[in-house]
Amino acid sequence: MNGSPAAARLTTSLVLIAIVFVVAGVLHLVKPAPYIRIMPPWLPAPATLVLVSGIFQILGGIGVLVPATRVAAGWGLIALLVAVFPANLQMLLDAHARGASPAWLAALATRLPLQAALIWWVWRAAVRR
């Protein structure tokens, strides 16, 4: 990358994406219970899915930092974000069924469109040429 402001922003964006996904992936591995709890009941082997998603988050986060793997890692993270959407929706549905506070329900509902924003961010920084 050259020393332009645009290149600096891209580098910063890629580093932030890496941090977000590596930290999230590590959390999936060391504290899987909260993630297992939000798995939709129709998905098989929730603990395995949480473990696999954590590993792929870590690999994708590292991969966006390596120019040779950046695009593939970006597409992988986008696929992962699409794949975990049902768990985020399940979290909202479960909270609603438990009678969670309106503020918590609003926060969980706000997370859903944030998946699209994360997809756009990864695409813009890692996939788009």
Structure description:
- It is a single chain.
- By secondary structure, the protein is mainly alpha-helical.
- The chain has one domain (5-123).
- The chain is 80% helix and 0% strand.
- The protein is built from five helices and no strands.
- The protein has helices at 5-30, 33-37, 46-63, 70-97, 102-127.
- Helix 4 packs antiparallel against helix 5 (102-127).
- It is globular.
- The chain starts with a helix and ends with a helix.
- The mean pLDDT is 94.
List keywords for this structure.
mainly alpha; 129 residues; 5 helices
Write the layout of secondary structure elements.
Layout lengths: L4 H26 L2 H5 L8 H18 L6 H28 L4 H26 L2
**Percentage of residues in strands:** under 5%
Gyration radius, to the nearest Å?
Answer: 16 Å
List low-confidence stretches.
none
Number of helices: 5
Distance between the termini: 13 Å
Instruction: Assign an overall shape.
Output: globular
Q: Return the string of H and E elements.
A: HHHHH
Structural class label = mainly alpha
Provide a concise account of the structure shown.
The protein is mainly alpha-helical and 129 residues long. It has helices at 5-30, 33-37, 46-63, 70-97, 102-127.
